[in-house]
C-alpha cells in the first residue's frame, strides 16, 4: 500500500542493475583498484602517505604505531575496512615487494616466506625519505585538493611525485573488466629515459629500450629473453619470463651443492622449498641427497647433490617443475585523466613528465606570488627607513593604530599590507645593520622573482628544472640493477653446457644403469685379462651395454615392446667400478619391464626407420618420425605376444639388409623394403623374420649389414670370429636360415664391425676388456674362430659392444691428446674412441 507522501516511479530491474553496476564499476576502477599514471599511487596508498606526513611521521622522526596511522586514515580519508588500509601500508614497507620502499617499517612486517605481518597494534612505521620526495611541495599549491568523504577536510587528488613512482615501484590491481600489472624498474634508468624524452620528444620506443633494458625486480633474478620486454615496451602488454639465481659450491667429499640466492618476483620462498622437497621425495629429482633452507633476511636455499651428479641437470629440473622459473604478465594500464588507459613505455613516462611540468609550473607560480608579496612588504620597509623621522612623527601624533595606518597610506601611497607591516616593525629593525639586511634581502628577492618569471615564460627553462631535480634525486637514490637480462631461455640447450664426449651405457641384469666415459677403459691386446668394469655385487652382471655421445637421444626399448626416450646426459654418470643407479629411478618403467635394446639418434627426422626383432623371430618396421612425440611415461613401440619378448632393434633405411643370429648359431639375412618388410604403425605386431627349428632356440641378436664391415660372432666360451657378410646370402624373410658359426657353446652376441673398430666385452664375473677388432681374424662362416678373452674358471662371456667415434672435433682432439700422453708415458694403452 502507498501513503499519500510517497512518490513512486516504476523502473525496470534491468535498468536499475545496469546503472548500479556501472556506478560500482567506475568506483572500483577510479577510486580503488587502479593507480594514477601521474604519481603511480592508488587512492588508499596516497591517503596513507598524506596522513603520515600530516601527523609528522618524517623519515628522521621517531616511529609511531601503525594503529595510529590506520586510525588517522580511516577517520579522515578512507572509510573502508581497517585491514585493507593496514595491508596497503605493510606492502609499501616490504622490501621484497617494493623496489624502492615508501614506508620505513619497524617490527614484524611479514616475510617473503608468506608469513603474515603482526597486528597493527604491535608494529610501527614512518615515512621513507623517498616518500617524502614524492610528497614534497604538496603545500605549495602544486596539486588540487578535493573534499574528503564527509567534507570535513580535504585530501590531495594526486601527489607532486618528484620521482616516477608508477614505473619505479610498479603496481598490481584487479578492477572490473580490467587489470593492471606493472613491474618495477630501475630508478636510474627511468630518470635517464625521462630526461631523454624531455630532450627529444620524438624519441622512439626502440631508443628508450636501449636506456631501460627491462624490469628490475626487488628480489633480483634473471629475465630470459627480450621478446616479452620488447612487447610490453611497445604495446603495453607482454609476458616476461624470470628465473631465480643459483650458483654451485664444492663441499667435502668431492660433492657439490646448488645454492639458490635469488627467487623470482612474487614467489613464496617457503613454497618453493616445499615443492623442491616434494620432487625429491617423488623421485622426480633423484640426484639430491640433502635440502636445507639457510635463509635469513637474504635467500639461501642449499641443495646438496649426490656424488658425481650434474648440477646443471638438477637446476634444469627445478626450473621445469617449480616456480624457480615463472612468468610475469605485464599490463601497463593506469588512470590517465581519470580514465583507464593501456599505454606503452613512452606514453607512460610522458604522462609523468606532463604531471611534473604542471607541478613545477604551479609551484613556481606559488613561489613567485610569495616572493612578490615579500618584495611588496620590503618596498614598504624601504620607504619607511628612508623617511624614518617623519614616520615616527606621524605615528607618535596619532591616537591609535588605525589612525596611524590611514595617515601613512595617504601621505606615502602605501598599501594596507605595507602600512600594517611597518606598524609591526620592532625597534631593533631600525638599526643600521638591520637596514642593510633589508636592502640585501630585497636585492636577492628581485633576482629570484626574475628567475621565477623566466621559468614561467620559457618552456625550455621549465623542463630544465624538472631535469635538474631528477638528476639530484638520481644521485641520492640510484642503486645498481638487481635483475639481469640474458638471451632467450628457449634458445638454451643443455648441450651448450655439457661436453660432447663418448660414453658407455651399461645396464646390469638386476637393473642398474650408469654412464661411464670411454676414457675410463684401457685398450688391451686380444686375450688380455681386462679390468674390473661393472662393479656388480653378488650374482649381478652386465646384461646390456651401449656406446653413445652425451648429446644424443637414447631410446630404451623394453622387453614388452614399450619405448622410453631420454637424453644421454640425463643418464647418471658413474665410475668404471661403480654399481650404477637403479633403472627405475631413471625411467618411469612399469612393473616387470626390462631393457631389450637401446638406440642412439641425433633427432627424430628423415626417412630412417626402426626394425625390431623378438625372441621368437618376429620382426616389425616402424618409421623413426613416429617416435618424435615421446612421453616421459613411455609409448608403445611394438605389440608383443604373451610368451614372447623384444630382443633387439636397429635403425635402418629402405634397401638395407639385416641379419638375425640365434642362440644355437643359426642365421638369416633379408632385405628391408616395402614389399618384404613394410612400415607399420607403432602399435602393431609385425611379421615372421626367422623360423626356429629347435624349441629351445631363440634369436640372440639382430644386426644391420654393412658392405664395409664384417659380422663378429662371440660365443659364451670366449671364442669368436669375424666373417664377411658375403658369406651370408640373402634369403627370403621367414626361412630357417643357415649355420652362422661352429662353436663349442652357444652364441653370446653378434656385432657388425669394421677393421678400425674396437669392441667392449663383459663377462658374468664383471670383467671388462676393450680390444681392437683388427686383432680378430676374418675367417669363413662355418669355422670355429679364435679366443677373444681369457675367462676365469666358471666365468662366461655375456655381452659385447662396439665402441663408436664421437662426431665432435673438440672431443676428438681431447681423446687424441690423451693418446699422446699415454704413449709418451710408455703405456701400451689408447683412449681414442
UniProtKB/TrEMBL annotation:
Q: Where in the cell is it found?
A: Cytoplasm
**Where in the sequence is the active site?**
122
> What processes does the entry annotate via GO biological process terms?
DNA topological change; DNA-templated DNA replication
Name the SMART domains on file.
TOP4c
Please give the Gene Ontology molecular function terms for this protein: ATP binding; DNA binding; DNA negative supercoiling activity
Region feature Disordered, mapped onto this chain: 809-833
Q: Which UniProt keywords apply?
A: ATP-binding, Cytoplasm, DNA-binding, Isomerase, Nucleotide-binding, Topoisomerase
The reply to whether ATP-binding figures as a keyword in the UniProt entry is yes
Q: What is its EC number?
A: 5.6.2.2
The segment(s) forming the Topo IIA-type catalytic domain are 34-497
Q: What does UniProt give as GO cellular component?
A: chromosome; cytoplasm; DNA topoisomerase type II (double strand cut, ATP-hydrolyzing) complex
**Catalysis performed (reactions):** ATP-dependent breakage, passage and rejoining of double-stranded DNA
Q: Where would you say this protein principally sits, based on its record?
A: cytoplasm
Q: Does the record's keyword annotation contain DNA-binding?
A: yes
Residue numbers of motif GyrA-box? Answer: 524-530
Q: Which family does it belong to?
A: Belongs to the type II topoisomerase GyrA/ParC subunit family.
Question: Note on file?
Answer: Few gyrases are as efficient as E.coli at forming negative supercoils. Not all organisms have 2 type II topoisomerases; in organisms with a single type II topoisomerase this enzyme also has to decatenate newly replicated chromosomes.
PANTHER family according to UniProt: DNA GYRASE SUBUNIT A, CHLOROPLASTIC_MITOCHONDRIAL, DNA GYRASE/TOPOISOMERASE SUBUNIT A
Q: How does it assemble?
A: Heterotetramer, composed of two GyrA and two GyrB chains. In the heterotetramer, GyrA contains the active site tyrosine that forms a transient covalent intermediate with DNA, while GyrB binds cofactors and catalyzes ATP hydrolysis. Heterotetramer composed of ParC and ParE.
According to its UniProt entry, the function of this protein is described as:
A type II topoisomerase that negatively supercoils closed circular double-stranded (ds) DNA in an ATP-dependent manner to modulate DNA topology and maintain chromosomes in an underwound state. Negative supercoiling favors strand separation, and DNA replication, transcription, recombination and repair, all of which involve strand separation. Also able to catalyze the interconversion of other topological isomers of dsDNA rings, including catenanes and knotted rings. Type II topoisomerases break and join 2 DNA strands simultaneously in an ATP-dependent manner.
What's the protein name? DNA gyrase subunit A
